Amino acid sequence: MQFIQNNIWMLLIAVSSGTMLLWSFLGNRLRGVKEVDNAGALQLINHKNALILDVRDESEFKAGHIRGAKLIPLLKLKERIGELERYRNQPIVVVCRSGNRSSTASALLGNQEFAQAYSLSGGMMAWQKADLPVEK
């Protein structure tokens, strides 16, 4: 008991960091977000005619995006979700810079009954690191 009293702050930091680490691994699954890596995204795009939905800002999009991507910034997705209605029954690969905004967008799409919304793991950073084509 004396050990706990003497080291309470260190124990709280350890528990907090462990919780954050666990959330980073399980958070998207608990929110119902499906993730796909570059290879999986390419399979969906090439074989299942998936829509690529880019949820970055317009300036980020103009700097480089996946060919054929549709831009709807995350902050405008709720009001513009009707534009995606015709894609409701096909795969949607959601892309952002690193995967954070696309996870949020995928969760929103899932809540709107878009059952095949996938967040691209690592986002455009992972796509470019894999030397996959980018259009400007």
Features:
alpha/beta, single chain, 5-stranded parallel β-sheet, Oxidized Rhodanese, domain 1
Can you describe this structure?
The chain has 136 residues and is of the alpha/beta class. It has helices spanning 2-6, 8-31, 38-48, 58-63, 77-80, 100-111, 123-129; strands at 34-36, 51-54, 70-71, 92-95, 117-120. It has two domains: 1-31; 33-129, Rhodanese-like domain (Oxidized Rhodanese, domain 1, 3-Layer(aba) Sandwich), CATH 3.40.250.10. It has seven helices and five strands; from the N terminus they run ααβαβαβαβαβα. It has a five-stranded parallel beta sheet with strand order 1-5-4-2-3. Strand 4, helix 6 and strand 5 (117-120) form a beta-alpha-beta unit. The model has no long low-confidence stretch (mean pLDDT 90).
Short description:
By secondary structure, the chain is of the alpha/beta class. It contains seven helices and five strands. It is elongated, with a radius of gyration of 18 Å.
Secondary-structure element sequence? Answer: HHEHEHEHEHEH
Class derived from helix and strand content = alpha/beta
Number of helices: 7
CATH level 4 superfamily of the largest domain = Rhodanese-like domain
Count of DSSP E strands?
A: 5
